[in-house]
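Q: What does the predicted 3D structure of Glutamate--tRNA ligase look like?
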Amino acid sequence: MKKFRLRYAPSPTGFLHIGNTRTALMNFLYAKHYNGDFIVRIEDTDLERNVDGAIESQFDNMDWLGIFADESFKKPKDGFGKYMQSQKFEIYKNYADKLIQLKKAYKCYCTPEELEKEREYQISKGIIAPQYSKKCLTRTDLKNVEKLSFNIRFNVKENRIFKINDIVRGEVEFNSKEIGDFVILKSNGIATYNFAVVIDDYDMKITHVVRGEEHISNTPKQVMIYEAFGWNMPIFCHLTLIIDETKKKLSKRSGNSMFFISQYREQGYLPEAIFNYISLLGWSPKGEQELFSKEELIKIFDENRFSKSPSTFDPNKMKWINSQWMKKLDDLNYINFVKKFIDIKKFNIKEKEKKWINDVLLLFKKELEFGQQVNEHLDIFFNKENMDLQTIEVLKSFSNWKDMMIYFKSQIQNLNSFEEEELKDLIKKTGEKFSLKGKELFMPIRIFTTLSEHGPELAKTIKLIGKQKILKNIDSIN
Ligand code: GLU
């Protein structure tokens, strides 16, 4: 079998986001499942729209996610052309000239004003989708043509039926009469996307084109170019849309979700979790399992399991998957990972507290959904000096709270060591003395010791807050 070669072809007009990561990832999985090559090609012909730093950031975030390219402009291989379109202007021009020789393309000298007039005329005649009239195909009225600037247009044959077999959509048919003679090389010498992409995929011996469904409308033009050159077409696979909770295409304007991979990285998501969740957007494995490593996904990938309907990006699901991956970390890796997200301006960890903070972080291992969330939990160990009014109300709603507090304080003062076991016993003893259990017992103790209604395991928390601060907290209540 011929080696599969798939490519991710970002335009450096922006940064890596959920949508283009899904494209990169599916190409990567598809290639790796079949022991093929995954290639990154930069489509940077639209020079004005290129954004500084976008290319570097795309590679950096892909590396972080574990989507590694076998070939790219950083790792070029001989015999597959260039990995960046801006280095191929000459090549596109030569191919365009070749199409002119073959009479499959021609020079169009029409000015923008002429083209606009033609369009307006067609619209006035009730034509909904105006097309170029092919005027320059047979034009003889121009003088000094060598001095005029021109676009090169593809000569679309009328009423031809083309068929493609798309992995996701099955057989797709179109009639060339719906397509006007489109420009393949602009007067400034720059190839248009539909032309360059075919030349590149051919040069790079791409076997499968996996991309978003917004490109399906471009495919007919590309198919005609393949045919004009007599080249074999790759297999096409157009992935369905990723939509947000309002059913619109997911974008940076989508309300409830972050869009860029760097945002998730900063918030403390794990690359394994993002990889895992994005692989389930528009694709699903057999069975109910939802947590998969990259290696498992490569193994179980199946191109027949792409979804035919749009997939909804669910930020809560993403969070859940991340929390599952955080739980899988061993304690040391978990601590090292979460530590990076502590807001050090707010929670200043002193040298002697380094071991202690590790134990504090471990308290939250079962509940953290992402790294930065740790900052919502640390108040009780650091800054908390006063209770808010609502918490005071909750405390005062328990009838025995004051007597319990006085008792608890006196018992704490008598404790020889301040360890989890002893504190558990003390909580139990308090329950017996006041004939309380469950929430009636734990909630008041939690509030007068930690000054908060919420927190992890009570005895461990009290121990880690430390005797001195616990006594201070109790004293702050009156
Ligand atoms: N450069 C195109 C994009 O960013 C990709 C085109 C393709 O995959 O054919 O959408």
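A (community wiki): The structure tokens above were generated from the sequence. Residues 9-11, 43, 197, 211, 215 surround glutamic acid (CB under 6 Å). The first helix runs from residue 18 to 33.
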